[in-house]
Amino acid sequence: MKKGISIILTLIIILILLIGVNELPTFGKENNPSNNYVAHKYIENSIEDTGGLNIVTGIILDYRAFDTFGEATVLFTGIIVVLIVLKKS
Fold first, then answer.
1. 51: alpha, beta or left, given left = phi > 0 and alpha = psi -120 to 50?
2. What stretches in the chain show pLDDT beneath 50?
3. Where is the MrpA C-terminal/MbhE domain (predicted)?
4. Distance between CA atoms of 73 and 49, rounded to whole angstroms?
């Protein structure tokens, strides 16, 4: 009985994932979300807006500062937790 439920649940998850993949935009098309106006704005105006030496630095430190800070906080917290767990062992 448990094996049958596991198989049915696995097939449902596979079906949901396949439907999701089918809904993704075609790679390389102009109307993809990755080719929107924000990317063009970053490329054209980032050096002037941020005063950075290159585009990547300007995007990471000015446009995406809060996001980068959040990622750094998560990584720092993970490292601290791993060190605490290893120290107690």
1. left
2. none
3. 31-87
4. 26
